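Hey team,

Filing this mostly as a record. A colleague (T.K.) asked me to run one chain through the structure pipeline before their review meeting, and I want the input and output archived in the tracker in case anyone asks later how it was produced. No errors, nothing strange. Just documentation.

Input sequence:
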Amino acid sequence: MTFEPGCRNNWHIHHKGGQVLICIAGRGWYQEWGKPAQKLRPGDVVSIPPEVKHWHGAAADSWFQHIALAVPAEGASAEWLEPVDTQAYEQLG
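Output structure:
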């Protein structure tokens, strides 16, 4: 996936199977609900357990690319939720 500067997906949950992100270019962010956002750079790998509400996307001033892998599981699905709060996103460094 390629994100233009400032682009991010909505909060979402991967039920049963989880997700793995492999960062390949640019700078981005990953955040789990209730936790601080973490910076992402090429070479970073994020293993997201099933049932964890999260979002990921580009930094405000950088393109960002990652490979997103859905972890296979019987009955796995993704639930898309609300947008990331714009004010909270703009406060990220």
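Quick notes for T.K.: Residues 86-90 form the longest helix (5 residues). Strands lie at 2-3, 12-15, 19-26, 28-32, 38-40, 45-48, 54-58, 64-70, 77-80.
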